[in-house]
Design brief:
299 residues; Farnesyl Diphosphate Synthase; 2 domains
């Protein structure tokens, strides 16, 4: 239990401060303090869970730590945990009436990364995207609040769009970890092999494959937008900012002609801040102000 007892909110605070380049930081920057603190606690939980899976090379040890973390979460819900961050999370869960199943689904998504490093079909990958990202959207939705039940479908579709964009951006770094998220059925369809992907081979079949995968991400961005009711938009400002940031990232991948091997595709911090600020101030800005970031954003 030592790893849990030393993991406190205070120890995580410097990490949050150093993460000002993260998409989460800029998306949640303008939230009211109570909601922002709740989101930061959720973010801390997600980050630590992700670190369990990504750090180190001993898979058995990762499984052990993930089981321990899951059990400690359950203890926190009964006020019996020794982890400061999980106790804070328990308070957030109760305050905003967040279904605990979303956290368990998220943990199952992290467990998938320990059990699977290949996906046969998109249906398999979509299940992973739901668990790894849509669950976070559903959790945050309870913090934001909503008037319409279909807004939860917005969170689900946006989560899948964000995770797909992440996968496309991180193809090279994931391959170094031995993971390929692009479905095998898609690799076969475009005549691009796993061996080529592992060797970062950039060719016409790869570009065709990436064009197909990017369009799939666009489709989920469109689905998300169609599910968000007009009177829920102000409540979901932070999620919409996140969506816009990742949408720009997707466009950057396309404008780089899908070359995610030669350099990591990213957005500069001022651009992310501008995206969040424009969305926050949209009603106070000229209608055509979006031209300054050279695209029409989905939110």
């Amino acid at each position: 239990m030592a790893a849990l007892t030393v993991y406190t909110a205070e120890s995580f605070a410097p990490d949050l401060a150093q993460n000002r380049r993260s998409n989460f930081f800029y998306s949640f920057l303008f939230l009211p303090s109570t909601k922002r603190e709740a989101i930061e606690t959720i973010y801390a939980f997600c980050r630590y869970t992700d670190d369990i899976v990504d750090e180190g090379s001993d898979v058995k040890e990762k499984h052990r730590r993930l089981r321990q973390w899951t059990a400690e979460l359950q203890r926190a819900l009964y006020g019996e945990s020794r982890s400061t961050i999980l106790n804070k999370l328990s308070s957030v869960i109760k305050k905003f009436n967040i279904p605990v199943r979303h956290f368990h689904d998220l943990l199952k998504g992290m467990e998938m990364d320990l059990k699977k490093n290949r996906y046969k079909t998109f249906d398999e990958l979509q299940e992973y995207c739901y668990r790894a990202a849509s669950t976070v959207g559903l959790i945050c939705a309870e913090v934001f609040g909503y008037h319409h039940d279909r807004t939860k479908q917005y969170a689900i579709n946006l989560g899948i769009a964000l995770q797909l964009t992440n996968i496309l951006r991180d193809i090279k770094s994931d391959a170094k970890r031995g993971r390929i998220y692009i479905p095998r059925e898609d690799l076969r369809r475009f005549g691009y092999s796993e061996e080529e992907l592992m060797d970062s081979v950039y060719n016409e079949p790869f570009r065709n494959l990436m064009k197909y995968e990017c369009e799939r991400a666009h489709e989920f961005f469109r689905k998300a937008k169609s599910c968000l009711a007009e009177d829920d938009k102000p409540l979901f400002y932070a999620a919409r900012a996140m969506g816009n940031i990742y949408y720009l990232l997707l466009l950057r991948i396309e404008r780089a002609n899908y070359d995610v091997f030669s350099k990591r595709i990213r957005l500069a911090s001022p651009v992310k801040f501008l995206v969040a600020m424009i969305l926050r101030m949209r009603n106070k800005l000229p209608k055509n102000f979006h031209r300054y970031i050279r695209t029409e954003l989905p939110a």
